[in-house]
UniProtKB/TrEMBL annotation:
The lineage of its organism: Eukaryota, Viridiplantae, Streptophyta, Embryophyta, Tracheophyta. Its cofactor is Ca(2+); heme b. SUPFAM superfamilies: Heme-dependent peroxidases. Ca(2+) 1 binds at residues 71, 74, 76, 78, 80, 92. This is Peroxidase. One of its GO terms (biological process) is hydrogen peroxide catabolic process.
């Protein structure tokens, strides 16, 4: 084998290696204490500012957690969900699944507090990841360390939301595929679904299960009939405004009650009930329901760290936005 051939063979093997690693390399660009030198107080400023809002309105924790999830599933955790639509582009923010997101004012307040201390240093994507963590922790949920160094994306496209974001009426096959596409496994699906232990939903997200499941004016047979009766009292067929607790009785507290409800066939969405249709997710539901969530907090923290690394931009990619709703 001549020198030239050896060199080509070596370069080819290196290229394969680069392609294999590049999927993970951006996430490797994140690290704990990333702003230690460039903005030493960043994390405490973010935490204190978020606390000002969450302490007054604990129900903001759920939408802020959901915002991070919605961000990461479309284009990765790059803050693209925060961008406003423009004259020439309709952004993710205006897609139907994101129209019920709220808490943007919290992100804006945090961003301006951080900008005041260290202009142009901390990304909106990192702020979103930290505020989601702090929100959960402030309502007695788990706390996890967030590796930082995400950069902000410059692109946000409405149609991508429908293709990438798991829908409340997704079945278990679709859910597993959508999570796998983001490098998240079946356990992550079961664990992150537990985020539904906090928050509310508009009737629109599940009324088809109450009134017209297969288009014949029927109810969803996988749902507890007694629960259907209760939900029908709250939600009339074309109700688009009423809010219903996802975890009745403890929707403001981060706990394992969600799994107890799902095990009793009282999951609000089809995507919740779907967890009983797969041996692995079903086993996880039953484990948490029967052991008072023995491993839920630890599992949730681990899956959130993993989700927070999906498709991140690092190094010279993207930008650090001055305002979270606008590209620079």
């Amino acid at each position: 084998m001549g020198i030239r051939q050896k060199l080509l063979s070596f370069l080819f093997s290196q290229l394969i290696l680069v392609l294999m690693v590049s999927n993970h390399s951006n996430a490797m660009g994140l690290k704990l204490g990333y702003y230690h030198k460039t903005c030493p107080n960043a994390e405490s400023i973010i935490s204190k500012t978020a606390y000002r809002f969450i302490s007054r309105a604990p129900t903001l924790a759920a939408p802020l957690l959901r915002m991070h999830f919605h961000d990461c599933f479309v284009r990765g955790c790059d803050g693209s969900v925060l961008l406003n639509s423009t004259k020439i582009n309709i952004s993710e923010k205006d897609a139907t699944p994101n129209q019920s997101l709220r808490g943007y004012h919290v992100i804006d307040a945090v961003k301006s507090a951080v900008e005041e201390a260290c202009p142009g240093v901390v990304s909106c994507a990192d702020i979103l990841a930290l505020v989601a963590r702090d929100s959960v922790s402030m309502i007695h949920g788990p706390y996890w360390k967030v590796p930082l160094g995400r950069r902000d994306g410059r692109v946000s496209i409405l149609n991508e939301v429908f293709a990438e974001l798991p829908a409340p009426f997704a079945n278990i096959t679709q859910l597993k595929q959508m999570f796998a596409a983001k490098g998240l496994n079946t356990k992550d699906l079961a664990v992150l679904s537990g985020g539904h232990t906090i928050g509310t939903s508009h009737c629109l997200g599940f009324t088809n299960r109450l009134y017209n499941f297969t288009g014949k004016g029927d109810t969803d047979p996988s749902m507890d009939p007694n629960y259907i009766v209760k939900l029908k009292q709250k939600c009339k067929p074309r109700d688009t405004t009423t809010l219903v607790e996802m975890d009745p009785g403890s929707f403001k507290t981060f706990d394992e009650a969600y799994y107890t409800l799902v095990a009793k066939r009282r999951g609000l969405f089809q995507s919740d009930s779907a967890l009983l249709d797969d041996p692995e997710t079903k086993a996880y539901v039953i484990l948490q329901a029967s052991t008072h969530g023995s491993t839920f907090a630890k599992d949730f923290a681990e899956s959130m760290v993993k989700m927070g690394q999906v498709g991140v931009l690092t190094g010279n990619q993207g930008e650090i936005r001055k305002h979270c709703a606008l590209v620079n």
